[in-house]
Amino acid sequence: MNLENARVLENKEVKPNFRKLKLYSPKVAAEAKAGQFLMIKPTVVNDPFLGRPMAIYDSDKTLGIIEILFMIKGRGTKLLAEVKVDDALPVIAPLGNGFKITETDKNVVCIAGGVGMAPIYSLIKELHNKDISNNIIVGARTEAMLLGLDKLADLCMAVDIYTDDGSFGSKGLATMGLENILKEQKIDRVYCCGSMIMMKNVAKITALYGIPCQVSLEERMGCGIGICMGCVCGHKKEDGSHGLARVCYEGPVFDAEEVIWHE
Amino acid sequence: MNKPNLAVEFAGIKMKNPVMTASGTCGYGRELNRIFPLERLGGISVKGTTLEPRLGNNMPRIAETPAGLLNCVGLQNPGAVKVTQKELPWVVQHDLAVIVNIAGGAVEDYGKVAAMVSNVQGVAALEVNISCPNVSAGGMAHGAKPETAAAVVKEVRQNTNLPMIVKLSPNVTNIVEIAKAVEKAGADAVSLINTLLGMEIDIESRSPLLGNKVGGLSGPAVHPVAVRMVWQVAQAVKIPIIGMGGIMTAEDALQFMMAGATAIAIGSGTMVDPMTPIKVIEGLEEWLIKEGIADIKQIIGAALPGKL
Ligand SMILES: Cc1cc2nc3c(=O)[nH]c(=O)nc-3n(C[C@H](O)[C@H](O)[C@H](O)COP(=O)(O)OP(=O)(O)OC[C@H]3O[C@@H](n4cnc5c(N)ncnc54)[C@H](O)[C@@H]3O)c2cc1C
Ligand SMILES: Cc1cc2nc3c(=O)[nH]c(=O)nc-3n(C[C@H](O)[C@H](O)[C@H](O)COP(=O)(O)O)c2cc1C
Ligand code: FES
């Protein structure tokens, strides 16, 4: 883990309301694993007070570069959208446990919902480097919220696309695509990052098919480093007892069967 | 000039510098120890420990506010048995003052936890939390009145020989009265302030944002309130004070010490930048050198009436 001021190399709109930041941060780039995140602030003064958790979208060890992909939501991300090239942004990274890749896997599924593409893209890249065959499903409410397709095209990866309104790809939910694949192919593992409802449904489906699944959870965070107990989720322990786990420290990636979903 | 002396000693607690991390913002030290050697700190006040394990409040537990945050963690902790068997033996191996923050529902619970913690070798002191705004039973209710505060202090006193620090709530009409009452009941020191009760409403859902509806405010927003309270309490009691509330820099810490605090603790500041306590220690040293002061003890209470 590093605490440093990362220099902004590029701040670019990728879709209306979505931006990508390229940061020079060699130490983080060297350590980052797929599914890990950072705590980032748009300014060096403590306003806004808390860091914002953001997945590491991409990293390049040789160039010392990391990228984040984010939606403009409230005050913090609005300020993040306005940072200039050469600004120094405080980051703490890489944080949390990323996705666990099993080298012996032959064929897996990656599902990204909306901005959930951020951690999933870095996973896709790693699976690609390891020559693990991967079925990619991308879901979004509408075409304007489909992210990362340019990068996937650069990797020459085929993608199964779903939009709620049918504005791009198939009309419907990404989970439909998952069921189709699970019916037809032998799948070793499923990875997912998207809305809580999407991940909950993916967890349900994979449980039904008896296929291991990892999800990357989202929760409001105070510290991001495990010291405040601000970010817990319901969690089944190995002995079956129910407890709590810190999304920032034990997570953000969990085995889906360990997660106790709300409602 | 030689290196100034940063060490402080109060109520039988020795610290190599006056800087501690505040309870609830440093766990039991394990996570911070991966970022800097825990020994750099003067002390650590570990997460509030209750007799039984507590799961704490529902999410969300954190809301950002102007210059601070609200939290309603609600004393999530594994309970006194696990804390004394698994957590404390680890943290006491390190060369710093380990202060165990204890909380309870019933008054007897405080006594039981105090007794259990006192059996762990190497604990420097107890910090009795009668000021947690995040638990319905007990917590702040005990700290709200001089009589109930004194009752908890007496119960703990009977169950421990360790130095006893009593952590005061700012959510009272007159904090000086409470401080005097706990001093009389046998407290060896007081720490202040705990968080200020507050609330955030999510205007989209038109409902309170936090899982517990209300939460405790901390961070720079509370600093002037906390400094004022330390300054008032310092004039009313003889026992030493640990000051906290919104410390981000050495200058913030110096205000507390000049107001009469012998040591200081950093909570929210550690959460937003885990190196804050180290930066404060280094900043204090630099300030003393710049001012030509050989010993930090010389500035304690400098801003109190009669000291000017
Ligand atoms: C592990 C993790 C990875 C994430 N990765 C990404 C990513 O790659 N891209 C992206 O666009 N978003 C991501 N998010 C969500 C992102 O952190 C929030 O959208 C962001 O914090 C909103 O900040 P704001 O100031 O714009 O919103 P405000 O609503 O003004 O924020 C107020 C407070 O609430 C917190 N908050 C609000 N919404 C969320 C949320 N959905 N999740 C967590 N905290 C929230 C903020 O951090 C801040 O402390 C991630 C969240 C987590 C937990
Ligand atoms: C997330 C969080 C958890 C806390 N938990 C405790 C606790 O368990 N016991 C306690 O006495 N105080 C607790 N506090 C209060 C702090 O120890 C401290 O008194 C207060 O936050 C003011 O200091 P600060 O502004 O530096 O954070 C907590 C504060 C925060 C922010
Ligand atoms: S955000 Fe503080 S423990 Fe996870």
Descriptive tags:
heterodimer, A: 263 residues, alpha/beta, Elongation Factor Tu (Ef-tu), domain 3, Rossmann fold, 2 domains, seven-stranded antiparallel sheet, seven-stranded mixed sheet, 6 helices, B: 308 residues, TIM Barrel, eight-stranded parallel β-barrel, four-stranded antiparallel sheet, 10 helices, globular, binds flavin-adenine dinucleotide, binds flavin mononucleotide, binds FE2/S2 (inorganic) cluster
Structure write-up:
The complex is a heterodimer of chains A (263) and B (308). In chain A, strands 4-3-7-1-2-6-5 form a seven-stranded antiparallel β-sheet. In chain A, strands 11-10-9-8-12-13-16 form a seven-stranded mixed β-sheet, with helices on both faces. In chain A, β1 (2-15) and β2 form a beta hairpin. Chain A has 263 residues and is α/β, with parallel strands linked by helices. The mean pLDDT of chain A is 96. Chain A has two domains: 2-95, Elongation Factor Tu (Ef-tu), domain 3; 107-216, Nucleotide-binding domain of ferredoxin-NADP reductase (FNR) module (Rossmann fold), CATH 3.40.50. Chain A contains six helices and 17 strands. Chain B has 308 residues and is α/β, with parallel strands linked by helices. Chain B has one domain (8-299): TIM Barrel (Alpha-Beta Barrel). Chain B contains ten helices and 16 strands. In chain B, the strands form four sheets. Chain B has an eight-stranded parallel beta barrel, surrounded by seven helices. Chain B has a four-stranded antiparallel β-sheet with strand order 5-6-14-11, with no helix packed on it. In chain B, α3 packs parallel to α5, α5 runs parallel beside α6 and α8 packs across α10. The longest helix of chain B is centred in the C-terminal third of the chain and has 16 residues, at 276-291. The two termini of chain B are 25 Å apart. The A-B interface holds A 1, 3, 46-51, 76, 90, 92, 219-223, 225-233, 243-244, 249 and B 24-27, 31-32, 34-35, 47, 55-56, 59-69, 71, 73, 76, 219-220, 248, 268, 270-275. The complex binds flavin-adenine dinucleotide, flavin mononucleotide and FE2/S2 (inorganic) cluster. Flavin mononucleotide sits between chains B (22-25, 47-48, 71, 73, 75, 101, 129, 132, 167, 194-195, 218-219, 222, 244-247, 266-269) and A (222, 228, 230).
